[in-house]
Amino acid sequence: MAEHRSQGAGGAYARWGKRACDVLAAAALLLLLAPLIAAVALAVRVALGRPVLFRQARAGRDGRTFVLLKFRSMAPADPARPAEDAARLSRFGRWLRASALDELPQLLNVLRGEMSLVGPRPLLAEDVALYTPRQRRRLLVRPGLAGLAQAAGRNAVPWERRLELDARYATLPPTLAGDLALLLRCLWLVLRGRGATAPGHATMPRFEGASDHLPAADTTASAT
């Protein structure tokens, strides 16, 4: 993208501290959580079979495509007999998604520089063509494991508000305190089992384009 995030004046954290924190934290978490990651991988192998990892092309910073990693939580799709997500999700898969343990492999995406610990959640690469100019601002930064939209309610947040919050985060200088607050808020929601699914859906409905309009009640959301 020709436009760049206006974070050059955001201090040391914006220039290099955020990335340094990403690398150090992701490496430390991969080491500390190695037994848990191995246990989840084994559970996926027993409950769902191979492959253990789910790989999918997602849009990263500046719209560059990368392969996102997750633990698989659904039965394989059958092209000959398409099924809704609800039909492909077992009780184990629902628990895995609600606990966010399926996202642990994305620590490798963070180490590789494709993602950050905090930023807009990466969406499908083909969805970029559906963004409005305002929504495309979410591509000014690395996507993240957690973000402003996730802190507002994870998948329970409707698309219009979600993309507006993503754009807002991408156009404000990041701060260490703000990012830590978002991580803690997202962790609190996960521990409480909130927001794992969109209302009336087993997961999150497919993005089909959304306007820039944001209800007045949502315009007061802040980065912290």
Question: What's this model, at a glance?
Answer:
By secondary structure, this protein is mainly alpha-helical. Helix content is 39%, strand content 9%.
Could you describe the 3D structure shown?
This protein is mainly alpha-helical and 224 residues long. It has one domain (11-218). Helix content is 39%, strand content 9%. It has helices at residues 11-32, 34-48, 85-88, 91-99, 106-111, 148-151, 159-170, 176-191, and strands at residues 53-59, 65-71, 116-118, 144-146. A two-stranded antiparallel ribbon has the order 1-2. The radius of gyration is 17 Å and the shape is globular. 33% of the residues are buried.
Keywords for this structure?
single chain, 224 residues, mainly alpha, two-stranded antiparallel sheet, two-stranded parallel sheet, 8 helices, 4 strands, 39% helix, disordered N terminus, disordered C terminus
